[in-house]
Design brief:
320 residues, alpha/beta, Rossmann fold, eight-stranded mixed beta sheet, three-stranded antiparallel beta sheet, 11 strands, globular
Amino acid sequence: MSGEGHDLEEATRIGTRVLAVCAGDGIPDTIEAMQPTSRRIEVSDGLSLHALEWSTEGVPMILIHGFGNEAHIWDDFAPRVAEHYRVIAISLRGHGDSDWDPERRYDYTDHLVDLEAITTQLGIERMVLVGHSLGGRVAMLYAGRHPEQLAGLVIVDSAPELDIRGTTRIRMEVADHQAPVFSSITEYENLLAHNYPAATPEALKRMARNGLKQNEDGDYELKMDTAYRGVDGPRLSPEALVSREEEHTRNMWTGLEKLPCATLVVRGAASDVMSPEVADRMVEEVLPKGTLAVVPQSGHSVMTDNPDGFAEAVCNFVLA
């Protein structure tokens, strides 16, 4: 990301040692032991979102997770850049420890407005955005609306147009477990192992531990709002759903075409959500300063499937 301005030059003056650390070579104990500060941020619609702040100095880097995940999904990656960026991982509304919306407003536009509120609340005028899947689409929409605020953009296995194979798989997984109840955290971990077959054991344990809450009966339920999973959620007609998706897709492509900052597109080599053709189009035909990184031994959930490979690809971009 060299040449993108003084703020990035300051953040990237770190040398080959840090790149080796990002690749997983000799990670210092101080990084492995690093813990974030938990905080609440007031956003739109009277809601409060949960965030993990890994550091307080440097160019802000905001990490946005995908559907069904939460801020801890970045726990492997965040410490590796926290010494050089002000790293903040957020949980979107209806996810993790963030508030559920009583009115069930969970459109991309609602997340976009929340992100605008976060940058205002934290006094952020310029930043690097890193978004995976749903979070990547929110990041693209934000970039289209506020291109001047971005020092860099990292889109992780997300695109204006998604592969129907992956979106169908995810819909089927959700339909089979819209409001599941588990007798133990291990039971949920076993389900995650089925849905995330390439994820590391450590990632699965962390996802299970941070994705559940215990109810009065002693069982465990998802922290994610069940309305987001189709239980008593808003009902739009098929025509309205198609129209809304087409509008978001147009806005994403348009925003990427005009984006002045350097952008990294990360694709899992075995992803069924982001096709190679769309990834190539993004970097070769649309983005003015686009770069593609394909991470081996990973599917859609790149950061949990191959944490070292993901970190190396992103560090080569944001720290080189």
